[in-house]
Amino acid sequence: MGDVIRLATLADAGVVHDVSIRGYKPLKDMDIKFVGATADLATVEENIRRNANYVLERDGRIIATVTVAFPWALGERSIQPYPFIWWFAVDPDFKRQGVGTALLDYVEEQVLVAQVKAPAVYLATATRHPWLVSIYEHRGYVGFYEHEYEGDNIIFLRKVLDESLFAELGNLDVLVNSN
Q1: Alpha carbon of 26 to those of 31, 79, 99, 124: distances in Å?
Q2: Distance between CA atoms of 139 and 108, rounded to whole angstroms?
Q3: Which CATH number among 3.50.50.60, 1.10.730.10, 3.40.50.300, 3.40.630.30 corresponds to the domain 3-170?
Q4: 133 exposed, middle or buried (CB, 10 Å; 0-12, 13-18, 19+)?
Q5: Which residue range or ranges hold the N-acetyltransferase domain (predicted)?
Q6: How do residues 116-172 score in pLDDT, each as one tens digit?
Q7: I need a surface site. Which of 88, 112, 115, 160 has the fewest CB within 10 A?
Q8: Three-state DSSP class for residue 55
Q9: 3-state SS class at 177
């Protein structure tokens, strides 16, 4: 069967919840308070209803998940006019096998560039996490804003997906809401 990437449905919520809780355990152990580390099933269902939650299945088993939240779904929490990647987790049994890379590549290239025509995308992570910032920087993300959240210094990183469109729409490159 191989790998399949698709949008999650409400029927997937229980498995997405399990992958998220187990995938975020290292962050929870570091006391980094990300939603994915402590979410209950109702929060996962709400995420699937409100956002584009993608899953990667291997041989019919969901082994990774990532959410793309659009500015209108984030409302006042959106600080950029671009899609926001969050709630990214890989089943610990499949770490270091390229699963996360495959899922993010698909979302960036096949969804955000090819379908949505997004000039850029952004995400956030805790600066004290020992490797996440460098992983995202290696993928082409660049830090543009920091603030404190739940006692952690959070860095927002952006990746330009379409250089010419980003330059053309350069007036959008502002913090929409820096509160």
Answers
A1: 9, 27, 18, 17
A2: 11
A3: 3.40.630.30
A4: middle
A5: 3-162
A6: 999 999 999 888 877 788 899 999 999 999 988 777 788 999 999 999 989 887 655
A7: 115
A8: strand
A9: coil
